[in-house]
Alpha-1,4 glucan phosphorylase
Amino acid sequence: MLDTKRIAADVKRDIELWRVQGEDISGELLNFLLSKAIMRELIPLHEATVEKQRKVKNAYYFSAEYLMGRMIQNNLMNLGLHDELKEEMKAVGINLDQLEEVEDAGLGNGGLGRLAACFLDSGATLGLPLNGYGLRYRYGLFRQQFEDGFQKELADNWLKHPDPWSIRRDDRTCTVELEGKRVLAVPYDMPVIGYHNDTINSLRLWQCEAIEDFNFEKFNNYEYDEAVAEKNYAENITRVLYPNDSTDEGRSLRIKQEYFLSSASLQDIIRTHKENGRTMASFPTYNAIQLNDTHPVFSIPELTRILIDEEGVSFQNALDIVRKTFGYTNHTIMAEALEKWDAKLVKEIVPRVYEIIERIDQQLRKDLAAAGRGEEKIEEMAILRDKKVYMAHLAIYLSHSVNGVAKIHTEILKKRELSDWYALYPERFQNKTNGITQRRWLRLCNPHLSDYITKLLGDEGWVTDLDRLTELKQDAADPAVLAAFRDIKRINKQRLCDMIWEKEGVKLSPDFLFDIQVKRLHEYKRQFLNALAILDIYFCLKDGAITGFTPTVYFFGAKAAPGYDRAKAIIKFINEVAKRINNDPEMKDLLKVVFVTNYDVSYGERLFPAADVSEQISTAGTEASGTGNMKFMLNGAVTLGTYDGANVEIVEAAGMENNYIFGARVEELEALDHYDPVALYEGNVRIKRVVDTLIDGTFDDGDTGMFQELYDSLLKGASWHDPDQYKLLYDLPSYVAAKLKVNRDYADREKFSFKCWMNMASAGRFSSDRTIREYAKDIWDIAPVEE
Ligand code: 26Y
């Protein structure tokens, strides 16, 4: 364990020095001083972990995204330093709450990136030899602002403050070749700290740099532009995270990022493998690599290439080694998000890797023919087809394990999207239901509830064994427990109100019902459906069709990909609805709508603990899992959702009767052969009334025509889709009914808090500790390193 006294003394001395200079201690400065002092102490612990891991099989998580959020408080908690340091700092007039100013590390888009971060936390806490590889983007996911209700994107300049949690490791630098040019891959290591144990794993993020930071030979030869161009070529590769999690774009920069990540990480693992005195034949015995979706899948042909070209391994043996090494996780059912790269681009950027892909494709075609597949089927399943590289096919063919991220998702993959592959390799398919780390998503973000749980359970064991929450189910019978639980929720709601007032300038009351939908903005997630339902409720409150309504705030938080026009139109629409309702004096004590700006990990840490109702309303069969749903559940909110993704398992664990499931299920939607949204619109005056607000002048889209486009998307369709492809109008009546049922039920606070409590007490399964144990046992074959 660390020497808290020494750390505190270090930081206090630094603080004094800054103060002598007349400097105020800002949150960022405090973060820097604390983190630096801790990092110094961590180095020997990290080295000890590395040494132990040399002896055993290791797993590596390859991911283009890591949504780490703020590091400092989580690290203080995991190291067990928080309380003591808080006291020490108080003594010199410093409040650790100042750390709330510190910026998030936002190197990810959404669920997939946050999952990677939760997995690393669980790996270290379980003492597993699990380390991460990713990219050190100069700019993370954009910062969102609203201007007149329109989303505007600003650069996320997260490195404008020094990044004390990373150590540059020049000694582990390697080179990567792209388009015949060589660039440097320089690793920056971030510690991944196990909770109250001595494990310090690492997240190694690659930064791309020119081989010579500035080529003076060229410069002196008057080749000024070339000298600068070389530097820019390299630095562009890790300049920015693609802010898109829905449509795959055939961009050469993205291919370069993906190959750069794959190549550098593999070189590093192979180097370690050899340093440990091992040969490539034993590579899969000592190394397991998990591919977080298809983004790092160039690793498959790249390892094949290295084995053949550099290690003299035969093609067949190389495929065998590769297949034993990799596991592939699929995170999406949406066809648009399945990566298909333009073969010509791949060939230009990595010609030799492309040749290997061609050879793998030939082998796959042979295997398929041998397995009795006809020409047409072979063409459908090929890796190279229509001058494109199908990354998912490459991943499945050369992995020993393919997994979905929730039961229903894995079933849908087997039955629909990947049915041909399931028929070919049934033994490769597995389910690994997602999870979240209770350290960040309860212990850190909800201290009052955490303390109360600890008090009831008698100890803090639940922080590393979330199943212990089931013991709390019996306490639901105790009215005093539920009353205390409600008091805690109210404190959390007040905290959120304060934050909303400060950040959004909207005054809210914690006595309202808090109903929250936070996630990336996407049509399939149906924020638009939520907005239409709120409008319907609003109109019905105005005309008296609804009475006895419990005052409610509907919260939204979501970023839209900058090029996703319709998602941006939905944001503008929700902001218009919010403006109308919030400015209506009749709604003052009844209804409010807030779209929080720049929803990110840190905002989430305030929102989840304050929620009464969690909105999870994707069209059945579209959301792979969802993990926000689990964060709400763990903090004691009920789910208002469709029978989709992990919602299915949430209600299985917490009881249908304690949640609000509505809408069509997958089978019902599949059986719909002539879906006619126009008939629904014409046949239901309430549907018509809300949909017409898009075109009757109720709302102003600033003459962009975006509301007309939204209207058309529901009733006319577009060149690329049928009208109302996500069945909003189909589910709208049952959704409004469910929203009103929640609202009525909430009036009986005691009964409602029973449901909330049962959800919290049933959340044990959704710990990422459980998920990671399953990966470790069923896919990676790794075990905790002995102390
Ligand atoms: C190819 C590129 C456009 C792309 C980039 C990022 C495609 C997809 C993504 C990210 C996808 C993602 O975040 N998926 C979410 O993964 C979560 C973790 O498994 C799931 O819980 C969630 O349902 C799924 O939408």
